């Protein structure tokens, strides 16, 4: 498993393959720079991480799509993802 660049949970089966994280609903397009807008997500990682801390998803539109039990299934991050 691979860590989601947004939430850090090991919820992705591969890296940079446009897979959507069930924990935060970030689509992993390979963008790792915090201040570069990710095309599919239409946000920066910094903004998505702030949104995750504030309301539990990478963006407000994805709050209802997040799998609430996913945090229990996947290993929690040991440190913030940079």
From TrEMBL:
Entries under Pfam families matching the protein: Cys_rich_CPCC
InterPro entries noted in UniProt: Cys_rich_CPCC
Domain Cysteine-rich CPCC intervals: 3-70
Name of the protein: Cysteine-rich CPCC domain-containing protein
Species of origin: Halopseudomonas pachastrellae
Lineage, highest ranks first: Bacteria, Pseudomonadati, Pseudomonadota, Gammaproteobacteria, Pseudomonadales
């Amino acid at each position: 498993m691979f860590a989601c660049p947004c939430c850090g949970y090991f919820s992705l089966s591969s890296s940079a393959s446009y897979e959507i994280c069930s924990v935060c609903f970030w689509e992993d397009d390979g963008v790792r720079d915090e201040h570069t807008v990710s095309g599919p997500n239409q946000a920066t990682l910094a903004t998505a991480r702030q949104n995750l801390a504030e309301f539990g998803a990478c963006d407000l539109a994805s709050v209802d799509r997040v799998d609430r039990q996913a945090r229990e299934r996947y290993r929690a991050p040991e440190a913030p993802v940079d």
